[in-house]
Amino acid sequence: MEWGDVRYFLALARAGSLSAASRRLGVEHTTVARRVDALEAALGMRLFDRLPRGWVLTPEGEGLVADAARLEEEALAFARRAAGASGVAGEVRVSAPPVLASHFLAPRLGPFLAAHPGIVLTLAGEKRAALLGQREADLALRLSRPAEHGVVARRVATLTFALYAAPAYLDGRRPEEWCFLGDDESLGELPQQRWLLAVAGARPLVLRTNDLATLVHAARAGIGVAALPCFIGDADPGLRHVAADRDGAASREIWIAIHEDLRRSPRLRLAMDAIGEIFTRDRWLLEGMAGR
Predict the structure, then answer these.
(1) 259: which residues sit within 8 A by CB, 6+ positions away?
(2) Which residues face 240 on adjacent strands?
(3) CATH 3.40.190.10 assigned to 161-244
(4) 4-84 CATH
(5) 200: helix, coil or strand?
C-alpha cells in the first residue's frame, strides 16, 4: 500500500466530490480518482460508492476515516518537527490577507531578503485563513486572534479604517446626498462594513464588491464614499479623508501566527521576527496617524 494514497482517501471523504477534493489538494480530479482506486485495490475493499451526486463512503470506508485522520496528523506532526529543526536557508511560506500582502508587506521585504539570500519567501494573499496545523503555511497574518489548536500568535498592529471619497465627488455635494460603496455580502459581517452601514444610515449603498482594489478605484472615480484602510486612503492623492472611526468600531487587530512545533526553526523564527518588526515600525501608517 502507498501511504500517500491515504491522504487522497481522506480528502475525498471530507469533500464528498472529486472536484472539491482536487481543489483542496491542488491536483487534477483524475489524480484523486486514480489514487483512491489504487488504495482500494491494495486493501481489497471498496471505500466509496460512485454515485451521480458524488462519491459516498461505504460502511468499510467510514470505518477507516478516523484511522486515516490519525495517520495524517502524525505525518503532519513529523513534518512540522522536521521543519522546526531545519537551518536558516530554505522556503518560508507566509499567508496574509490580500490587502496586507500586496499593499503593505511586499514593498517592505527587500532589506530582509537581501540580508538573507538563502531564504525564499512565498507570500500568498488569501482571504481565507490558512490552516497552520495542516502545513498550508509556515506563518500567517490574521485580522483576528487565531483560535486554531497548537497555534501561537502575537499582535503586531491595528488596522484602522476611515471614510474616503474623490475630491470632485465631495465638492458641491452635501453629506446627505452622499452614496456609499461597500463590501460584498459574501465577505460576511465585517467590522468595517457594519461601521459603514451605521454611518450611511438611510443613504444608499450603490456598489458592493469583494475586492479592495475595486473599492479603491470606484471611490477614486467619484462613484461614492468608501470605508478603506487608512494606510491606503491616506497615501492616495485621488482620495480625500471624509470621516475617522473615532470609536474603533471598524478596527481590526493584526496578528502573526505560527504552529508551536515550528517555533524552534531558525529560518521561521528569523522571518517571523523580521515581519513583526516591519509591522511594529510602520504601525503608525496602519493605525491612521499619517498626515493627521
Answers:
(1) 80, 132, 133, 150, 151, 152
(2) 165
(3) yes
(4) 1.10.10.10
(5) helix
